[in-house]
Amino acid sequence: MTGEGKRYEVTEVKAIRGTESKTIARKQQEGWELVTQDKGGLRTTMTFRRPKPKTPWQMWAAVGGVGVLLVGLLAVGALVEDDSDASTTDAAAVASAEQPAPEQDAEPSSATDPMICVAEQDLFGASCKFGQTAIYSDTLPRQRGERKLEITVGAPIEFTPSEDAQTLYDLSLHPVNVYFPITVKNTSPELALEHGSIFTEAKNAEQGGRYSGIRWVSDGDVDSLGGFDDLPVGESLSAKEGVSMTTLEGVELRVSIDGMSGYSITFTR
Predict the structure, then answer these.
(1) Residue 215 contacts by C-beta under 8 Å, 6 or more apart in sequence?
(2) Among 238, 198, 204, 200, CA closest to 216
């Protein structure tokens, strides 16, 4: 492009709508003059020009045709590099504008975790599903502090009793023999659990409970959880609570903390 006897170099830059003024200011600092603007839906295409630098005639005389060729290659390279920088900046701006901000992960809580159910203090008959973890807490007497437990009861698993299987009073076994995987974890703040106990009671659609014919079974590693002594903070006790019953229809297991204290949680399907 020629004007007023001067020779110009020309470059084209694309900018996100709304950022044209920043692009124009940057190019003007580099000596470019805005010639045209073509505003599109998302981007504006701008054409800039600036006078080509004058070269002293002595240099042209010294280097001759080789110098002319070198200067031409340098000018083309400058234009290509400038266009490349502009395109890279433009692409980055488009990606930044179109990409939505990442969503913050919600903090896990019992309200959103399907594997957690909460049993409150002094609540008799709280209900959970097999496989869930009940969060239990209460305050121990004599200012000993807060006791917190995580109690998990899995769904009943059928097994075949061995010849060494035992029941209370050596009563005969029912057709259905299962065990409930039970885990109790001490999550109390700096409090070892002393002389605590866990009592369980199984029921089904035909047998109502402890005095309706359901029998506890001990057979190898199948045994009752019973109690705990000096369970350190962060550690767990596990057991396979063995039960003999007539059917698994309507089966449930109630877990009571310290017997008759009134704290119990029932796990069902």
Answers:
(1) 167, 168, 171, 173, 174, 243, 244, 245
(2) 200
Q: Tell me the C-alpha distance between 97 and 100, whole Å.
A: 8
Alpha carbon distance 88, 93 (integer Å): 9
Determine the pLDDT at residue 73: 46
Which pTM was predicted?
0.57
pLDDT band at 263 (very low <50, low <70, confident <90, very high): confident
CA distances from 7 to 4, 11, 59, 67 (A): 9, 14, 18, 18
**Cα–Cα distance between 85 and 15 in angstroms, integer?**
12
Question: Residue 53 pLDDT > 70, yes or no?
Answer: yes
Q: Please return the burial class of 69, using the count of CB atoms within 10 Å of its CB with bins 0-12, 13-18 and 19+.
A: exposed
Instruction: Quote the pLDDT of residue 110.
Output: 47
Q: Distance (Å, rounded) from C-alpha 199 to C-alpha 225?
A: 8
pLDDT (average), residues 49-71 = 57
Cα 25 to Cα 21, 31, 48, 67, distances in angstroms: 6, 10, 12, 33
- pLDDT (average), residues 203-227: 84
Q: Count of CB atoms within 10 A of residue 94's CB? A: 15
